[in-house]
Every structure is written in C-alpha cells, then in structure tokens.
Design goal:
This protein is an alpha/beta fold and 333 residues long. The protein folds into 2 domains: 178 residues, 4-Layer Sandwich (Metallo-beta-lactamase, Chain A); 128 residues, 3-Layer(aba) Sandwich (Rossmann fold), CATH 3.40.50. Helices cover 23% and strands 25% of the residues. The strands form 3 sheets. The chain has a 7-stranded mixed beta sheet, covered by helices on one side. β1 and β2 form a beta hairpin. It is globular. It is an enzyme of class 3 (hydrolase). It comes from Chitinophaga barathri. Keywords: Exonuclease, Hydrolase, Ligase, Nuclease.
C-alpha cells in the first residue's frame, strides 16, 4: 500500500492529493499548519490553512497570496485525499493536518502543545495509523509547570521591579508567545507597551475579532514615564539593542522553554527566565503519541533522535526524519 504521505526535498508530500504540508520549497499547492515562517513560506501558488490563520498568512506573506481557509474539522477533498484541520494549541490558528486516503489516516501535527493557554485552542489528539510529531523539547529534562504558576511568577517579578524603580520588559516571540502573554496578563491591569512587530500582529488579530487587551506602540516619541509600572513586550531580537537601551532602567525577562535549563537566562543577559513554551514538553509528547494510537511515528525537528530511540525501545515503530522546520523559534520556543 502506498504511504499517505512521503518525505521529499520540497517537504511532506501527499501523492493522492498532489499537495504538500508546510513545504520548504515553492510548490503548486501547500497545506499550512500555522503561520510561523518555518512552516508557512512565501512562493507557493495556492495555500490552504485554517480560517483563523488566513489573516496571519496574509500579514507575513502578503495580501495578494492565493489562500483559502477551512473550519475546524471541516473535510476538504483534494483530489484523492480527504483533509481536515484539528487544533494544535501552538498559537492562534495552529492546526494538525489529518489526511485520509483509502482508509488509511495520517496526521501531521506541525508544532503543538497540550496545555490550553486560553487563546490558542485546546489541543485535540487524533486517532490515526501514522503520526508525524515534532520534538522541539524531546528530552526528559523538559517538564513544564502549569502556566498559572508561571504567570504568578511574572506578576511577582513585575512588582519587584516596580519597587526597585525598574521598567519590566518581557521578551516573547512576536507571533504566538506575545499574544499568550497579553491575554493571560491582562487581569493585572497593567498598561501594555509593545514593539512594532508585535503591534502589527496585534492589529491584524483585533481586526479579525480576537479578544485581546489594548496595547500602545512604542515610538521614539513615547515619554519615559509611560513605562513606569507598565509592561513592555518585545521580540527576542531586541535584546541588548539600541531600541531596548532607551527603555532603561529596566529588568529583562525571557519567556521561552529553553529557560528550563539553568544558565540560559545568563547567556541571554536576562534578569529572569520564565520556562513557558508553546511546544509540548517530554511528557506531553509521549502522552500525545499514546493517545493517537498510531502504529508508526515519524519524528521531526528538535531532539528527534532521542525521542525516536525512546519510542523504539518501548515497542513503537518510530523513525527520525530530517526537515527544514524549527529554524524560526530555535531560541524563543
């Protein structure tokens, strides 16, 4: 029996449907799991994604792309393949792609996390014959604390900064992490000031109807007193930049799963590290694989060899696959 999906130089290909999932080279038809640039690349002739991802793809790839959106669980017939999107919980609009051909169901998960962050949707495990999983944090040392505890830590940190006369700056990826922070810290009543990259995504999401708190764009004319007892959210690329130095005095916090490892916050010259990730931790990966009931698992970007070997040792057919995923969020996942 021909496999439902194959791995090619251009990406994950479906022969029966003649389409690619998250291709890393330009193709005629691309099915996209989410709007991060390592999964949604420019140059494809046609795009299919979730309805929630459409405005985000247009923001990143241009308004003139040929893109269609499908609803959650809606079956789209593409040639000989039945395709549907199911929540991945990674960021707004992120999806797993379920592909069924001739009674065989394969699921390409893209990036996913199993804890519901309140805005990205609850991850939905899908029963399938073959499961393609990421492994960004595929090591046993990665075990996430509940996000409620992490946000409490952030609140306490901000109060300490207020008392010390320092401005609070959190670094978080501009598309996904930033919205998670804004949504879950709005109850603090803080005034939010953001970098332009986050502001642009925020405006698109507000226009699309998402319930996010108001933010203020930081400009060269923003008075210094605006930062006092407020919260600045900026992308990691601004760390130790001229842009950031103008916000002094400040305390810098990095929001990333990599902060789980002691010493990473020091390497980024951060005053605080919060191990909050939009990817599944080790146990999340294992529980998801079990819930799919998959007979075989393909492991992509991250600690793929470790996870594949662990699955093999526990009598699950598994194979490591090299892809071009993971490049956008290597330091900010």
């Amino acid at each position: 029996m021909q496999p439902v999906l194959t791995f090619t130089d251009s990406g994950i290909y479906c022969p029966a449907g003649d389409f690619y999932i998250d291709p890393w080279k330009p193709v005629d038809r691309a099915v996209i799991t989410h709007a991060h640039s390592d999964h949604a690349r420019w140059g494809n002739k046609k795009y299919l994604c979730t309805k929630d991802s459409v405005p985000l793809l247009q923001l990143r790839l241009g308004q003139d792309i040929a893109v269609e959106g499908a609803g959650w669980g809606e079956t789209v017939q593409i040639n000989g393949a039945a395709v549907s999107f199911h929540p991945a919980g990674h960021m707004i609009g992120s999806a797993q792609v379920k592909v069924t051909v001739g009674g065989q169901t394969w699921v390409a998960s893209g990036d996913y996390k199993t804890e519901n962050d309140g805005i990205s949707g609850q991850f939905e495990p899908i029963r399938c014959h073959v499961f393609i999983t990421e492994s960004t944090f595929g090591l046993p040392i990665y075990h996430w604390r509940p996000q409620s505890a992490l946000f409490k830590d952030m609140e306490d940190w901000m109060k300490e900064n207020d008392n010390a006369g320092k401005n609070s700056i959190l670094l978080g990826y501009s598309l996904g992490k930033a919205q998670r922070l804004l949504y879950n810290l709005q109850h603090t009543g803080r005034h939010f000031l953001v970098h332009g990259a986050i502001y642009n995504a925020h405006e698109v999401l507000l226009k699309a109807g998402w319930n996010l708190p108001p933010v203020e764009l930081i400009t060269p004319d923003t008075p210094k007193e605006r930062f006092k007892n407020s919260l600045v959210i900026a992308p990691p690329s601004t760390a130790d930049s001229t842009w950031m130095r103008k916000l002094a005095p400040y305390s810098l916090g990095v929001c990333s799963g990599w902060m789980q490892v002691r010493g990473n916050s020091r390497r980024m010259n951060a005053d605080a590290g919060f191990a909050i990730s939009d990817h599944a931790d080790w146990q999340g990966l294992l529980s998801t694989i079990k819930e799919t009931g998959a007979e075989k698992v393909f492991v992509t970007h991250g600690f793929s060899s470790v996870l594949a070997r662990y699955l093999q040792e526990h009598n699950i057919q598994a194979e490591e696959i090299k892809t071009a995923f993971g490049t956008e969020e290597e330091t900010t996942a």
